[in-house]
Design goal:
The protein is an all-alpha fold and 71 residues long. The chain contains 3 helices and no strands. The protein is elongated.
């Protein structure tokens, strides 16, 4: 599980979601360390949820212009 797969989240949000510290998240993203234990499990679940959400949102957004009305 790679923290870069959750790039849309801030370091603070990612830390809160995984139970890690912000400094741990910075280390993960810079490649200085790798998530392990419970934070790694939570990161994996978070990335799976973000993937499912993206698959739901993307088709729903087709046909919507920038102002949010249907095309």
């Amino acid at each position: 599980t790679r923290p870069h797969d959750a790039d849309g989240l801030s370091e603070t949000d990612l830390a809160r979601a995984t139970g890690a510290t912000v400094s741990m998240v910075r280390e993960w993203r810079s490649g200085l360390s790798t998530p392990s234990g419970a934070p790694a499990e939570r990161l994996g679940e978070l990335i799976r949820l973000l993937g499912r959400l993206a698959r739901v949102i993307e088709p729903a957004c087709r046909g919507i212009d920038l102002e949010g009305s249907r095309a």
